[in-house]
Each structure stands twice: as C-alpha cells, then as structure tokens.
Amino acid sequence: MLDKTFEFVLFEEKENVGYITLNNPAQMNAVTAEVTRDLITCLEYCEQSEDIRCVVLRGAGGNFSAGGNVKAMKERLDKGINTAKAGIRIGGEFIMRLKTISKPTIAWIEGAAAGVGCSMAMACDFSIACEDSKFIIAFVNIGYVPDGGITYMLTKAAGPVKAMELMMSGKKFSGKEAAEWGIITEAVPAEEQEAVVQKYIKKYSAGPSVAYAQIKKLMLDSCYHDLNACMQNEVTAQYICSRSSDHYEAVSAFCEKRKPNFSGK
User: Fold this and answer.
1) pLDDT exceeding 70 applies to what percent of the chain?
2) What residues does each domain of the chain span?
3) Edge to edge, what strands does the sheet with 134-136 contain?
4) pLDDT tens-place string over residues 100-123
5) What are 109's strand-pairing partners?
6) What is the pLDDT of residues 143-200, one digit of tens each?
7) Backbone angles phi, psi at 208, to 5 degrees
8) Cα(77)–Cα(16) distance, rounded to whole angstroms?
9) Which of 132, 142, 219, 221 is an S-S bond match for 250, by CB 3.0 to 4.6 Å?
10) Does the pLDDT value for residue 66 go beyond 80?
11) 9-191+207-256: what fold?
12) What is the value of pTM for the model shown?
C-alpha cells in the first residue's frame, strides 16, 4: 500500500485497482503544482505495484476538475509573482506519466472538466463522462495558451479545425458533444455512469496486462511520439503569456466577474 497521505488527493487501492481522487471540492478540485506532485507520486506507485492492474482518476464532490486555481493566480499576480517555468513543466511531467503508465487508465468524469482537467481526461486511455458534464478548454479566457499537451491530443482526436475552434473560442461543450467529436471515449446519462465505469474497471483490471502494456507502447510510438516536445513548447508559450498585460486583465476580470478589456499587450 502507498504509505502516504495528501492534502488534496485521495488514493485507494482495491481489488487490483488504484483509485486516484482529486479531493478539493470547495475549489472544484483545482490543480496546483503541489497537487500535481502528489498525483505524480500516486502514479509512480501504481506503475511500480505488481498488484495494481488498472488506474481510475476522478474528482470528489461532483466535479472532475476546474483546472487551475484562478483566484490563487490573481493573488500571486497582485504580489508581482508570475508563473515560473518549473511550475508549467511539472504539469507536463504529470500528463506524460499519465499517458505513458503501462496500466490501463480510466477517467471518471462528472460535472466540470476545465483547462488542465480536459488534458487529464484526454491523457487517460478511456474517458467516461456524464452526458451533461461541462467541458471547456478555458486557457484563452485567462490570456493563456493551452497546456497539458492538449493542443497535441485534441488535434489528434478531433482534427485541427475543431481543435482550433475549441481552443481559440474558449467555449463550453457537453460530455455528449465531447464523445461525438472523439475527444472522450463515451458519454452516458448520469444515472448510468457508475455502472458503465464499473464495466470498464472490471474488464481492464482483469485482462491481459502484458498485452495492454504493449498495445499502449505501440500506440504511444505511432500516435503520440511528439507529445512531450509539444509540452516543452507549451512551457515557453505559457511563460510569455504569463507576463502579458492581457493575462493579468483576464485573471482580474474572472475574479471580479466581469468581461475583460484586452489591450493586446
């Protein structure tokens, strides 16, 4: 067993399955650098454990993850503290570990999946959402570029035209739409979701683990070999955006519940 507890992440091992739960419902399971490090620790344990044959990622309190903590971001900006490249890199490291872990991974998506929450969902092998769950690739709304490799994964899944629309517009879309566009595996009515997820868990925690691992490796080599390079480019782009006036204005407007007034600087 993983002999460690975390502030905003829960880990449970049960019947050959590692359950990783984002556990900060008051902040809609926001993902910070500290949370990301704890998620990496959980994934490292799951990879090394001979008992764990499947990994499930979900959020507590009815939401998957609202992405970054914008209010905390505003507090840092007011103090003159900008986003550091190291903080962006740790997010990319987590997504790479989630994408490359040899065990099958399942995202159990309820409520909001925003920003890096979308990246986490797409980095899993299987993503099952409620039909009425709300997705938003929200980075542009705070003057940022998408991170977590989503520019790469979304283009692969939905094609460049749809990917460009969703990333540039920052608009919301439903779990049902996400499934129709190939962004997630399946969207189901809320009352059916748990039963459907359990079918996935039962199948992939009791199947041919060696074959699953090799299938994942082949898919990574053939379809996702440039994912890490994309995320390294995100570090530079995000760093540039984090120092823009538009980013500060967008974060301020979000916290003040008003429309931003962009200057283009």
Assistant:
1) 98
2) 9-191+207-256
3) 112-114, 134-136, 172-174
4) 999 999 999 999 999 999 999 999
5) 129
6) 999 999 999 999 999 999 999 999 999 999 999 999 999 999 999 999 999 999 999 9
7) -75, 90
8) 43
9) 142
10) yes
11) 2-enoyl-CoA Hydratase; Chain A, domain 1 (3.90.226)
12) 0.93
- Give the per-residue pLDDT at 118: 96
H, E, C per residue of the chain = CCCCCCCCEEEEEECCEEEEEECCHHHCCCCCHHHHHHHHHHHHHHHHCCCCCEEEEEECCCCCECCCCHHHHHHHHHCCCCCCHHHHHHHHHHHHHHHHCCCCEEEEECCEEECHHHHHHHHCCEEEEECCCEEECHHHHHCCCCCCCHHHHHHHHHCHHHHHHHHHHCCEEEHHHHHHCCCCCEEECHHHHHHHHHHHHHHHCCCCHHHHHHHHHHHHHHHCCCHHHHHHHHHHHHHHHHCCHHHHHHHHHHHHCCCCCCCCC
Contacts of 29 (CB under 8 A, 6+ apart): 8, 22, 23, 59, 60, 61, 63, 64, 65, 66, 117
- Tell me the C-alpha distance between 44 and 186, whole Å: 27
Paired tokens of 144? 């940022």
Residue 82's pLDDT band, with cuts at 50, 70 and 90, is low
Q: Which amino acid is at 67?
A: G
Neighbours of 65 (CB within 10 A): 29
- The packing angle between helices 116-123 and 85-100, to 10°, is 20
- The structure tokens 């499947």 sit at 54
Q: Using alpha carbons, select from 76, 161, 72, 167 the residue that is nearest to residue 118.
A: 167
